[in-house]
């Protein structure tokens, strides 16, 4: 499945009410490490069906970034059953993204 | 077996790969994270010849694509050890082992941590190592910068245009940075210097709420800040190679401009080498030299 773009209007339905765990990628266009992480997340999203991966642009969605206390990007937050389970800040390689989802 | 194994896909390692491939040597590049190195963090490079403006991401991507097109192989694994055999050298990664005739260590450097309790947990929750990356989150907020070199001064200046208030904390009363920057900072009404002081604790609930600083007389002050930008220098990523090549007391690989280390057939390139200017041009220059020396080394057998 491809990475889905999420905003305030569909955050609840796509993330909070999701049956599957959701990996949320907070990012911005001006952030180099975010752009490096993007193809990695695209790959993981295509390969796995047990997790949904969504992307949130913090410039367009500053309220969501504020609500979830995102103060550095890239920031990956894993949601399970509508709640934050854990987060990881900074660029990480594919193997670590997979571990982050699995553990 | 590869002719040349390059550890690190930053500007130095990638440039070494270009020179090595053009000399028709087989090349494996090992990278722990993602190609590009430190430079991907900067939105605008203004001092690389011929490029008045280019983003770090575009610079890194262009360099990576050039290297790939020339036929260098990439494996995204972190090198943890080198086994320095006489003819065959091995790089041990977290997942496997790779054999080469020569090795170029181009592992660059990483941010030095402050070393205060709770620091790691608060990264992205108030602690940052990159003002140009994370400054935008602190619009109209109060922040502190800790450090005494050019990076700290420039970070404070940059943040003073975004944040409501900036504390600049330094353990001495004089800075190692440029006079002009110091002068500009002193003219800023929202920048407060906190000198002869060190950060001793970080207070947080969900995120950083305040820090404590101690001055040289032992007086402790609490500063309410939303963000703390740590700019206390960088450390070379050479921990795994200290038994193979000589390092100086700060951990930089000892080698001259020819990039030749004390270990036969092992070369160094980039920010992790003993040198006075650590920039893209010097990193890419090292890459060219290290690869050329590696090619010479291989061709003598
Ligand atoms: C915010 C910022 C802005 C900057 N702006 C400029 C600028 O405008 N102009 C300029 O000239 N310079 C600038 N610099 C400096 C420039 O980025 C560095 O001089 C340059 O990147 C050094 O290149 P390098 O290849 O030696 O090391 P690095 O860029 O550090 O690359 C090293 C690579 O090796 C990898 N690595 C490390 N250890 C291992 C291991 N054990 N196994 C495998 N891989 C490993 C790392 O993940 C990294 O990708 C800036 C630096 C920063 C941080």
Count of separate DSSP helical elements of chain A: 4
CATH topology of the largest domain in chain B: FAD/NAD(P)-binding domain
Parts with pLDDT < 50 across at least 5 consecutive residues of chain B: none
CATH class designation of the largest domain in chain B: Alpha Beta
Strand content of chain A: 25-35%
Please report the distance between the alpha carbons of the first and last residues of chain B.
15 Å
| Order of helix and strand elements from N to C terminus of chain A | EHEHEHEEH
* Parts with pLDDT < 50 across at least 5 consecutive residues of chain A: none
Report the biggest beta sheet of chain B as strand number plus sense, adding barrel if it closes: 7 strands, mixed
In terms of DSSP E residues, the strand content of chain B is 25-35%
Q: Considering DSSP H and I runs of 4 or more, what fraction of the residues of chain A is helical? A: 25-40%
Spatial shape of chain B: elongated
How many individual β-strands of chain A? 5
Strand order of the largest sheet of chain A: 1-3-2-4-5
Count structural domains of chain A.
1
Bound molecules: flavin-adenine dinucleotide
Describe the structure.
- The complex is a heterodimer of chains A (103) and B (301).
- Chain A has 4 helices and 5 strands; from the N terminus they run βαβαβαββα.
- Chain A has helices at residues 8-16, 32-47, 62-67, 94-102, and strands spanning 4-5, 22-27, 52-57, 75-80, 83-89.
- Chain A starts with a strand and ends with a helix.
- The longest helix of chain A has 16 residues, at 32-47.
- In chain A, a hairpin with a 2-residue loop joins strand 4 and strand 5.
- With 103 residues, chain A is an alpha/beta fold.
- Chain A has a single domain, classed as 3-Layer(aba) Sandwich (Glutaredoxin), CATH 3.40.30.10.
- Chain B folds into 2 domains: 2-110 and 234-299, FAD/NAD(P)-binding domain (3-Layer(bba) Sandwich), CATH 3.50.50; 127-230, FAD/NAD(P)-binding domain.
- In chain B, 23% of the residues lie in helices and 28% in strands.
- Chain B is built from 6 helices and 17 strands.
- Chain B has helices at residues 11-22, 56-69, 131-134, 150-160, 179-187, 280-299, and strands at 2-7, 27-30, 73-75, 79-84, 89-93, 97-105, 109-111, 127-128, 142-146, 165-169, 191-194, 197-204, 208-215, 220-224, 227-230, 234-236, 266-268.
- In chain B, the strands form 4 sheets. In chain B, strands 1, 2, 3, 4, 5, 6 and 17 form a 7-stranded mixed β-sheet that branches. A 5-stranded parallel β-sheet of chain B has the order 8-15-9-10-11.
- In chain B, a hairpin with a 4-residue loop joins strand 4 and strand 5 (89-93).
- In chain B, helix 1 (11-22) packs parallel to helix 2, helix 1 runs parallel beside helix 6 and helix 4 packs parallel to helix 5 (179-187).
- The mean pLDDT of chain B is 96.
- The A-B interface holds A 28, 30-33, 35-37, 40, 65, 69-73, 75, 87, 89-95 and B 32-36, 40-43, 55-57, 60, 76, 123-126, 128, 133-134, 136-138, 206-207, 227.
- The complex binds flavin-adenine dinucleotide.
- Flavin-adenine dinucleotide binds next to helix 1 and helix 6 of chain B.
């Amino acid at each position: 499945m491809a990475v889905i773009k999420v905003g305030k209007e569909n955050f609840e339905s796509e993330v909070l009410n999701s049956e599957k765990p959701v990996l949320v990628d907070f990012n911005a266009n001006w952030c180099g490490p975010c752009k490096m992480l993007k193809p990695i997340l695209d790959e993981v999203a295509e390969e796995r069906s047990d997790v949904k991966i969504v992307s949130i642009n913090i410039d367009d969605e500053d309220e969501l970034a504020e609500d979830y206390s995102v103060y550095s990007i890239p920031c990956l937050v894993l949601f399970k059953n509508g709640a934050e389970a854990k987060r990881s800040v900074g660029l990480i390689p594919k193997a670590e993204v997979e571990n982050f989802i699995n553990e | 077996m590869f002719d040349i194994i390059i550890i690190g896909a930053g500007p130095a390692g990638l440039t070494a790969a270009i020179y090595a491939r053009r000399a028709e040597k087989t090349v494996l590049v090992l990278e722990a994270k993602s190609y590009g190195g430190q430079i991907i963090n900067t939105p605008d490079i203004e001092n690389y010849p011929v490029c008045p403006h280019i983003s770090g991401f575009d610079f890194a991507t262009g360099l990576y694509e050039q290297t790939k097109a020339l036929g260098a192989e990439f494996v995204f694994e972190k090198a943890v050890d080198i086994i320095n055999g006489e003819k065959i050298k091995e790089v041990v990664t977290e997942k496997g082992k790779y054999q080469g005739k020569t090795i170029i260590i181009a592992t660059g450097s990483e941010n030095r941590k402050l070393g205060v309790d709770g620091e790691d947990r608060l990264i992205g929750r108030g602690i940052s190592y990159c003002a140009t990356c994370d400054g935008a989150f602190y619009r109209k907020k109060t922040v502190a910068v800790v450090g005494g070199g050019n990076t700290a001064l420039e970070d404070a200046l940059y943040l003073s245009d975004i944040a409501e208030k900036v504390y600049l904390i330094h353990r001495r009363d004089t800075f190692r940075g440029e006079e002009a920057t110091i002068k500009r900072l002193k003219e800023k009404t929202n920048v407060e210097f906190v000198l002869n002081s060190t950060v001793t604790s970080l207070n947080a609930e969900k995120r950083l709420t305040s820090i404590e600083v101690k001055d040289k007389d032992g007086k402790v002050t609490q500063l309410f800040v939303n963000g703390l930008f740590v700019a206390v220098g960088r450390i070379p990523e050479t921990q795994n190679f200290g038994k193979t090549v000589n390092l100086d007391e700060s951990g930089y690989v000892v080698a001259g401009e020819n990039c030749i280390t004390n270990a036969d057939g092992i070369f160094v390139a980039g920010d992790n080498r003993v040198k006075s200017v650590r920039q893209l041009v010097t990193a890419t220059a090292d890459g060219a030299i290290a690869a050329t020396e590696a090619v010479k080394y291989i061709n003598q057998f």
